[in-house]
Amino acid sequence: MTRQTSLLYLDGVSVSFDGFQALNELSLVIAPGEMRAIIGPNGAGKTTMMDVITGKTRPDTGDVYFDGVIDLTGEDEASIAELGIGRKFQKPTVFESHTVRDNLDLALKAPRGPFQTLFHTITGAETKQIAYLLDLIRLTDKQSELAANLSHGQKQWLEIGMLLAQDPKLLLVDEPAAGMTDAETEETAALLKDIAEDHSVVVVEHDMTFIRSLEVKVTVLHEGSVLAEGSLDHVSADPRVVEVYLGR
Amino acid sequence: MPYLKSLLVVLCLLILPAGSAHAQEDTESLRPLINELAGGGFSETEQQLGVLAATGNPGVVPALEALADGDLYARKSDGVVFIGERDGRVYKLTDPLTLEPAGEERRRDMKKIKVNNGLRRVIRTALGTLTLMAPDPATRLAAADAMFKAQDPGSIEALDLALTQETEPRVRRKMEAARAAAVLKSDKPEAVKLGAIATLEALGNRDALSVLSGFLPEAQGAEVPATETAMARIDKTLAAWGAAENVWYGISLGSVLLLAAIGLAITFGVMGVINMAHGEMVMIGAYVTFVVQEIIRTSAPGLFNYSLFMALPLAFLTAGLVGIAIERGIIRFLYGRPLETLLATWGVSLILQQAVRSIFGPTNQEVGNPDWMSGAFELGQMTITYNRMWIVVFSLLVFAGLMLVLKKTPFGLYTRAVTQNRRMAASMGIRTPWIDALTFGLGSGIAGIAGVALSQIDNVSPNLGQGYIIDSFMVVVFGGVGNLWGTLVGAMTLGVVNKFLEPYAGAVLAKILVLIFIILFIQKRPRGLFALKGRAVDA
Amino acid sequence: MMTSFLFRALDKNAALFLGLLTAIIVAVPALNLLLPPDHPLHVPTYAVTLMGKYLTYALLALSVDLVWGYCGILSLGHAAFFALGGYAMGMYLMRQIGTRGVYGDPLLPDFMVFLNWDTLPWYWYGFDMFWFAALMVLLVPGLLAFIFGWFAFRSRVSGVYLSIITQALTYALLLAFFRNDMGFGGNNGLTDFKDILGFDVQADTTRAALFAASGIALGLCFIICRAITRSKLGKVLVAVRDAESRTRFLGYRVEHYKLFVWTISAMMAGIAGALYVPQVGIINPGEFAPANSIEAVIWVAVGGRGTLVGAVIGAVLVNFAKTWFTAAFPEFWLFALGGLFVFVTLFLPKGIVGTVTDNWAKVSRRKHAVDERPGDTPSTRPAPNPAE
């Protein structure tokens, strides 16, 4: 696939921290509408990759393009988010002293400037959208609860809801199933598959059953670069992947 | 010539007590020669001065000195010469050789030995000659220095004579300079003066510069450009020394900053705890020094010179224990909430200040310098005071010691482990709460010993700490949090920058500029000079 | 748009506070001016001035709370904005003295004559006009805050680093204003004021008017703060306080939000300073002392950060205690203040108002089991963690 037709295009991206090579000539291409799972042992560079895409970390070398033409290395977090890349963190990060409803309200696609928010009054369309999202993430009856009072799994879901409220083109989802019960994990997988119908999604996960249930192309990262790529069965048959996961 | 006078008094004091039996005998043989001074007119006196100078005996110095001041009198009855001091209607007499009191005489019984300016010059030369040949090099040096300042062409011969015998290089240089200065005042030919200019240029200090600039209006022919180039070169040398001096002052200030900041570098840099009471730990150290000195003064004054060595461990312990108490009592409940820690420790600082104010009073306390901290020495063209020098040395020793503790001891290893990964360290069996308390105690203790050092150069008052807290934070933040080398470089840089700005901007403005500089710098590099990079830091 | 914006500010709690404030604004001057001095309910003029001073402190606390309580920016330099506002007002009052100064110079304030200056420095021009001085009261602190914040927030200086450099900022200003050649009266500052807008500053009526003005300013700023914190922008601010980087990833430009609220807050502090100076009759560099800024922070902490009413209550309570203590036990005031810092951070992290409403919310919830939608009234908000 060429850069122009891709949604996300990483080529030769390297990042190092004080001599530690977090990303090493990483190349990765996501097509529009694609859902991709990324796995890899600890320190493989998964989170750093997300940091690079979302503008938190600047790559030392390499290209990062969104939508084929937009160079992400020159943008900051806020403008990357505005461009349509949403991110869910590994540790669920919601605004704990806001209600569930306000969390979604803050995430809703709307003008982001201080003066616009200062004089903002909530519209009917926004109320509707919030109601829809609350229903989707099954928090309708908790909407006036402070986010701090939610369970771990509910926070994960709220964060996914916030991600959807942003209505991004690309969702970066870091370990959505961490700390969830089996039932919750299953539901989360179903939810993500739903979302993938009309969004591009990149999922980073450790849980192999979760990955398997997504039924998508898998990329294995190791020491900051791509080790293998293909279906889950394909990559788990790769002896190098086996070695990375088991061989040490 | 008050300078010369006081100098000579000092010289006399130097020489006379050293008088041996031999000297005593010599002294008595001088008496008739001195009495001869009362002989008659100016020319006879001048002749007699030559005789006295020729003895080369420093014992005649007081008499000559008194003569130059017009304080030498002869008793009319027996012609014996005394130094006299007018006291109402009588003179108080002093023996010109032994310098012992010799009773009083009515004024009309004494005759003043008259001097004129011509004689005074001769006396100066004679004095110079006498002291230039003195056995003690320090005396000779001082004499040469006096001659350099006097710039009297009459001293050239004496200097020439002395130079033939002088072996001490230091004294030789001074004598040559004095000779050159005198030559410029004389009517010697141009070639000789050019040589003198070259000599002064080689000397290259402020005195040489002033001699040359004094000479410039009188210079003729080839002397003019020679003087001008020499002055330009000296200017350059002086500028270099001036810069060196600024660097030294900067390092000195930097070492003070380092001392104040290094404990903070541990509590803030390593532990991430904002201790606004850090300055009060310094203050406690200074007060410990005060108390130790008070006890020594009343019970064992002989130990005064060792007071600082006794104060050091006590200050470390006192401040360290206070620090541990603060950590155990307050800070440990606030880990992970740095802004609250900041407020709580500010409260502690208020309490400590007020406590010290209540106990010792609000005024400055007198903390003395031991002998080895007093005085100064010359290095090239700059003066270095011992207290500043020792503080620089001390701060570097403290820095090195701290590095050793952190890098080479088990305690240091534990501290670093806890800093890097608290949970991991805890699961390895390290008692992290104790390490926290001890690390905080170490940082506070070091602030305490900084206080011992700072008591030597700053006012010991309850507000002592307040003066250092902002500067210390600036140093740590500028150098880079979590990095002791950064603190060292940061302290020295800020010290030197401050001292280089001072001549142009004044002390207060320089400080303001440095603060603004740091404020801008932090904007540029929010993590300081030597920042740690990586994911962990951003968390 | 503006009306709906301001209207949002006025819910029941706010109305209660504003009603109380109005009552005080009316009652205190009335009891001072209308009752004879020997009447038991007469409020002496010194008490009016003292309370007026508390109100300006309350306004300063409000401004600190806006940035700290709602946005997590712990400023240790707000006294700088307060003092700058005060100096702007002081300059106006100095120019009003005219020929009544000791040296009787029509143009130059006494201290300039004393320093042998023969012309008025350019930055003193215009301060003979009240409207200009009033404008400067807002602009000078606002501009300094804007420039400082522009640099600081853009390069993401936050947490304790920001606190420390705000402290350095006010310290640098302290040193600068101590200098005679700055042209602000050096060590002695500006004092010996005669009148304001043509009224004698010492007169009872002027004092009462200044008190009322302080109260009105406090009320207006309270409404503005309330409107800000209850708007969507207010929610973004709290989001920034609790999870700054998350807010960024949602597409909000955090630095713009911080800069906005920081500048507004600095201007409010400036107004507080401007009202403070004519009441105490002097402004000197001591007002820049870092300790003053930290004290303002503790007022907010005592009252309850993140609650606007709390900031006001904290400022009044602590300063009342200070007045009483420094008269009764002068040596113990610093012990008490220091202890207060420790006590509040350790045992009362939400402050008085936060703790009270917390308990009240718990009780009422048990009674009615209703989920009232909390806006800025703190209910079961966890202790904010501005370290984020």
UniProtKB/TrEMBL annotation, chain A:
Q: Name one Pfam family in it.
A: BCA_ABC_TP_C
Q: Which InterPro entries match?
A: AAA+_ATPase, ABC_AA/LPS_Transport, ABC_transporter-like_ATP-bd, ABC_transptr_urea_ATP-bd_UrtD, BCA_ABC_TP_C, P-loop_NTPase
GO MF annotation, one? ATP binding
Start and end residues of each ABC transporter domain:
8-248
* Gene Ontology CC entries for this record: plasma membrane
Q: Which SUPFAM superfamilies match?
A: P-loop containing nucleoside triphosphate hydrolases
Keywords from UniProt, A to Z, are: ATP-binding, Nucleotide-binding, Transport
| KW Cell division (keyword) present | no
According to the record, the signal peptide region is none
PANTHER family with a match to the protein in the record: CONSERVED COMPONENT OF ABC TRANSPORTER FOR NATURAL AMINO ACIDS-RELATED, HIGH-AFFINITY BRANCHED-CHAIN AMINO ACID TRANSPORT ATP-BINDING PROTEIN
Would you tell me the protein name for this molecule?
Urea transport system ATP-binding protein
Q: Which organism is it from?
A: Roseibium hamelinense
Highest classification ranks of the organism: Bacteria, Pseudomonadati, Pseudomonadota, Alphaproteobacteria, Hyphomicrobiales
Automatic annotation (TrEMBL), chain B:
According to the record, the signal peptide region is: 1-23
GO terms classed as biological process: amino acid transport
Q: What is its main location?
A: membrane
Which keywords are on file for this protein?
Amino-acid transport, Cell membrane, Membrane, Signal, Transmembrane, Transmembrane helix, Transport
- What transmembrane ranges does the database entry give? 247-274, 281-300, 306-326, 389-406, 434-454, 475-497, 503-522
Question: What is the topology of this protein in the membrane according to its UniProt annotation?
Answer: Multi-pass membrane protein
Q: Which terms in the Gene Ontology molecular function aspect does this entry carry?
A: transmembrane transporter activity
Cellular compartments annotated: Cell membrane
Task: Look up the domain of life of the source.
Answer: Bacteria
Looking at the UniProt record for this protein, which Gene Ontology cellular component terms does it annotate, in alphabetical order?
plasma membrane
Matching InterPro entries: ABC_transp_permease, ABC_UrtB_bac, ARM-like, BCAA_transport_permease
Q: Which PANTHER family match?
A: ABC TRANSPORTER PERMEASE PROTEIN, BRANCHED-CHAIN AMINO ACID TRANSPORT SYSTEM PERMEASE PROTEIN LIVH
Q: Which family does it belong to?
A: Belongs to the binding-protein-dependent transport system permease family. LivHM subfamily.
Q: Which NCBIfam families match?
A: urea_trans_UrtB
Q: What is this protein called?
A: Amino acid/amide ABC transporter membrane protein 1 (HAAT family)
Automatic annotation (TrEMBL), chain C:
Q: Its principal location? A: membrane
Q: Could you tell me the keywords of this UniProt record?
A: Cell membrane, Membrane, Transmembrane, Transmembrane helix
Gene Ontology molecular function, alphabetical: branched-chain amino acid transmembrane transporter activity
- What InterPro entries does the entry give? ABC_transp_permease (IPR001851), ABC_transptr_urea_perm_UrtC (IPR017778), LivM-like (IPR043428)
Location of the region described as Disordered in the Swiss-Prot/TrEMBL record: 367-388
Q: Where is the chain membrane-spanning?
A: 54-87, 130-153, 160-178, 208-228, 259-277, 297-320, 332-352
Location(s) in or outside the cell: Cell membrane
Instruction: Show the GO cellular component annotation of the record.
Output: plasma membrane
Taxonomic superkingdom: Bacteria
Write down what this protein is called: Amino acid/amide ABC transporter membrane protein 2 (HAAT family)
Extract the PANTHER family matched here.
HIGH-AFFINITY BRANCHED-CHAIN AMINO ACID TRANSPORT SYSTEM PERMEASE (PTHR30482), SLR1201 PROTEIN (PTHR30482:SF4)
Q: How does it sit in the membrane?
A: Multi-pass membrane protein
